[in-house]
Amino acid sequence: MLIRSLAIVAVVLTAFLGLFPEVALAQTPDPLEAAAAAQVSADTAFMLLCSALVLLMTPGLAFFYGGFVRSFNSLNTLMMSFVLMLVVGVTWILWGYSLSFAPGNSFIGGLQWMFLNGVGLETTGYLEGFPPEEVVSYAPTIPHQAFMIYQAMFAIITPALISGALVERIKFKVYFWFILIWSIVVYCPMDHMVWAKGGLIGLYGGFGALDFAGGTVVHITSGFSALVAALMLGSRKKYPNHLTSPHNVPFIMLGAGLLWFGWFGFNAGSALASGGLATSAFVATNCGAAGAGLMWLILEWVLVGKPTAVGLATGAVAGLVGITPGAGFVTPVAALLIGAITAVCCFYAIRIKNKLQIDDALDTFPVHGVGGTVGALLTGIFATKSINPYGADGLLYGNPAQLLKQIGGVAIAYVLAGVGTFIILKILQAIFGSLRVSEEAEIQGVDPSEHAEIGYGEWGMPEMSGSSTVNPLH
Q: Does the pLDDT at position 30 exceed 80?
């Protein structure tokens, strides 16, 4: 009886599905489509997480820099990083993303994606009205807006790095306009030349220099711009004979830890998908930081006599800078070597800068400029297609031409950053008269003069709050 009932049910279902075949299809989804949808979901979640990690690096940088300066300059230093989250957070949406990644020429993108026109939730950068060959796909398994917002986080932190050379003496309004213009004149063209399709330098139609996560785009441009800006701005009044020690070393350690943590999103996320390449970049990132931090401690132990917390933090950051261009192209052992070599170069670069009495206050050029340069060149030596088949082999793997390409990319970054920074500051100097705060404000601390606040203790401000408390700084 049971067998007969089951047979009747089977006959009825077969007849029903025969009349409505679309029901049968709905019950049996295409496994390839399901796998593709799952991949999109996984990659999108991964990239959104990486975007948040990279954004965290900017507050991390703020604390890292903020710990080095005098206490009455700490808020100003923090502000010079945090303000980028606002300025570029807006300009990237309005025009920055389009100038960086929209189809244009070899040097700069077009205006098709201004105000995020055509930048939607589809998984390709589709330009409405353009023929199929003009379709731009940078990350085919994530929404276009996910790629856009990930790249925004790079655009935010890069100008903030420059502030380390200018702290304790630049007017905040000058800095505000400088970073706004710099992000357009220097960052967007460099971003386009290295990472955009059709750019002059990179793998998408350029001459093939390797930069996985920003050695040239981020660190060399910001580092050399910092050096040029520091020279144009001039030294602090107390430099070099009457400088004070860092006011808050725990801030420095906290900032370095946040940078290290966020750097996993910076480098692993540059794979633009979860998977093996992201894993390789993640591992290389940790190797570069650890190798450099350890080498820095050894150098201090041997040459100075004692390892320092500031040295540990600085060494780790230098290693993170050094491994950035090669994170997705080199083996873990090569990453350790890149970190160690970068640490040595940055360590001595700081000493040379001090002997030359260049007041790059927080060593932005010795760490980011030199570190980015060393990392870019070492990528041309250690890169291997066994890690990333879409990259290139370096010198050690039988391709000496790759090192020459790396040198070309580095040279272009130096020229663009140096010339762009010089012109911008000259224009601002003509507009504002002086780039610096007054001598009195510099000696007392720029927090009260630039922001009417101080970071520690109580300070009443009658003109703002109605309080009768007297400003103890005057």
A: no
